[in-house]
């Protein structure tokens, strides 16, 4: 039976049924191209460099052991509390700003009673979480905080990010030797 199957030739065809009269036309898939649009280019340009990070294929820069702050992340959440407004942003590991939201923005400021309290931190977090999801960022590294020094505004900000659907822990590093398997 296996020898008989090995000697059989299979021809792949594509069938298209036309609208007029139901006539069917067939052409070979692995034959000569019908036009230059059927040719596949040998050059590939990746127009979405974040795709490799989402598929966990990109190299995560680990930095050095004594670096402070640690740079073993792709996207890091930054929370800044000033005297007149609050702001949250997501920064890529190479230093450029990806997404930002602030209570000093006109549309957000109009909806807030105060630009510096816990409700403002939660509102900024919800706006930032939505912008992250629209930009394709599903998980970010939470900000570095010393133990016991996290404020109520920071906790409200982190809770707002969680409620917005953004994970506050990045996935494991695919190049890490000590990762769980």
Automatic annotation (TrEMBL):
Keywords: Mitochondrion, Ribonucleoprotein, Ribosomal protein. One of its GO terms (biological process) is translation. Its main location: mitochondrion. InterPro entries: Ribosomal_uL18_bac/plant/anim, Ribosomal_uS11_sf. GO terms for molecular function: 5S rRNA binding; structural constituent of ribosome. One of its GO terms (cellular component) is mitochondrial inner membrane. The keyword Cell cycle does not apply. Gene3D superfamilies: Ribosomal protein S11. SUPFAM superfamilies: Translational machinery components. It is found in: Mitochondrion. The keyword Endoplasmic reticulum does not apply. Belongs to the universal ribosomal protein uL18 family. This is Large ribosomal subunit protein uL18m.
